[in-house]
Design goal:
Blueprint lengths: L9 H6 L4 H13 L1 H8 L13 E4 L6 E4 L4 E2 L1 H5 L1 H7 L3 E6 L8 E4 H17 L7 E5 L4 H13 L2 E4 L6 H10 L4 E5 L2 E3 L2 E3 L1 H11 L5 E5 L13 E3 H6 L10 E2 L3 E7 L7 E6 L1 H14 L7 E4 L6 H13 L3 E5 L10 H9 L3 E4 L1 H10 L2 H4 L8 E5 L5 H11 L6 E4 L33 E4 L5 E2 L3 E7 L9 E2 L3 H9 L6 E9 L5 E6 L3 E4 L2 E4 H9 L4 E11 L3 E10 L7 H14 L8 E4 L13 H8 L16 H9 L5
Helix pairs in contact: 2-3, 6-7, 8-9, 11-12, 14-16
Bound molecules: 5'-O-[(S)-ethoxy(hydroxy)phosphoryl]adenosine.
Amino acid sequence: MSQPVYPVPAKWAEEALIDNGRYQEMYRASIDDPDAFWRREAKRLDWIKPFTQVKETSFDEADFGIRWFADGTLNLSANCLDRHLAERADTVAILWEPDNPADQERRITYRELHEDVCRFANLLRSRGIGKGDRVTIYLPMVPEAAVAMLACARIGAIHSIVFAGFSPEALAGRIQDCDSRIVLTADEGRRGGKAVPLKANVDVALAHAPGVETVIVLAHTGADVTKVDRRDIDWTSAAGDQSASCEPEEMNAEDPLFILYTSGSTGKPKGVLHTTGGYAVWAAMTHEYVFDYRQGQIYWCAADVGWVTGHTYVVYGPLMNGGTTVMFEGVPNFPDASRFWQVVDKFQVEIFYGAPTALRALMAEGDKWVTRTSRKSLRLLGSVGEPINPEAWEWYYRVVGEGRCPIVDTWWQTETGGAMITPLPGATPLKPGSAAFPMFGVRPLLLDGEGKILEGAAEGSLVIADSWPGQMRSVWGDHERFFQTYFTTYRGYYFSGDGCRRDADGYYWITGRIDDVINVSGHRMGTAEIESALVAHCKVAEAAVVGMPHAVKGQGIYAYVTTNVEVQPDDELKAELIKWVRQEIGPIATPDVIHFTPALPKTRSGKIMRRILRKIAENDTGSLGDTSTLADPQVVDHLLATSPLAE
Ligand code: WTA
């Protein structure tokens, strides 16, 4: 069956920054002479000391290293704020929409944001925080989250945002891993009409993370929260006492900017480390080209700042480009399933960038929630975080965008800093479900199991052959783990962990993770993390977690659990384990299925046969493959007989 292709609308081809010819030309140039290409692109930033070196990178073990613009200096907060003041001080930088539509929105201009950031940066300095210090941020989606990020960047402190949906245990682990001495939080967050007890969570977390000396607490909901003397200070009054000017720290391009913890296939979450210059160039450039962004346009990326999408496309990208970025505290279905589109109408949003999981959930509610809103302001739609299935793509295109708005389906990762494979709205005919073509400077390859390069139409492991400026530079505190995780599966290449197909027209189709990472509602989770949470429960002997297909979330969490012998595995225990995992990691890790089993299928050498567990979780039990190497093949029969999906 031939796939539909949506040509570039004539108006887009004419008016966009980049049309198809220009894309081809620039892509070639970026590959043929990266130094010249990036020397030019990096001019979009204000450098304090201009760089002379551009690309100094190698993925080979012998001379492994990734450095971009390494002798240049700059400050990212100054690039997001100060340089806009002469001409755009009164332009709205952040348009904030509260969880509850009855509450007041906030419009913060560049002048105001600059002042707030300076005051907060001075406050951080007054608490002894400076260049290289780690600052943990555990805040809801409020403008102060952006203020905190930019204030860190201003003084050269390294921010580490922990998504406000993570539990105290998960927060404590992330505070300790990077030895933060300070945590920024709020009394409470709000999501979908419910309060999230952030400060109380911090108090619990700090019992396990005694190195924290300062907690700055934003009074957001006004809830009554405990105050620890000398440790806890009030955000608004303490920042209010500070001066509204703060000299930005001169940072080297390769000085760290932020850490963001993300799940991998093994062990505890890794602190993905991004540095200043390359990340900034990548964030600003991709934000401009992918969204065809021009100053004055109202742009909304509906991601949380707790994830990389929020870092690059809510805060840094749009602000470097002098844009107006919408920040939304709430959820897509509160008070009802029209909320996204009501906010679009309220602010006259032109560019909307969201996640497939939200779209699928809204699609299930029916078209009327969309069609009762105007959406006339919308010109461009985006998708990120997981593969978008063609049905959801078509719905987004036809119902939300009324067939008028191109969709940019952007493939990227926490590790890549910004969009890597994506259509450009003025250049790329769209195929629903395909992320299309590589961004400038990106050299994707598909490899087979032996590491052989596949040509033409093919399916294999997605690797990137050469460095790009936005690439992560290290795993915090464990540089060896960085090399081992990404550069040893296929020697000399960056391995993404994703599978991918390339069709005869050269379009890339991401097929999903091929390692032990699952993507639940666009949130990355290591199966190993959920397993270790389960086995930490006193009644659990062993656990194996795999992904299962889920109509809304993309993937759900399927946990096989073996209890200790004296324990009765019943529904009560299921509920207890679900609660336990939520408490250990957070609600995003809630198992969808718990399947009790007296044993897990293992090879004679004791290795769990995950392939079989995945098949059962997918309810694809007709082709379990070779089970002859199992120590006890009866285990599989038992699993099949007790599968909750089999009924
Ligand atoms: C998946 C989010 C298909 C992919 C920016 C990747 C996608 C992981 C897409 C990274 C897309 C992200 N199409 N899959 N457009 N975008 N992914 O680190 O599996 O939270 O490896 O970064 O999400 O998730 P992360």
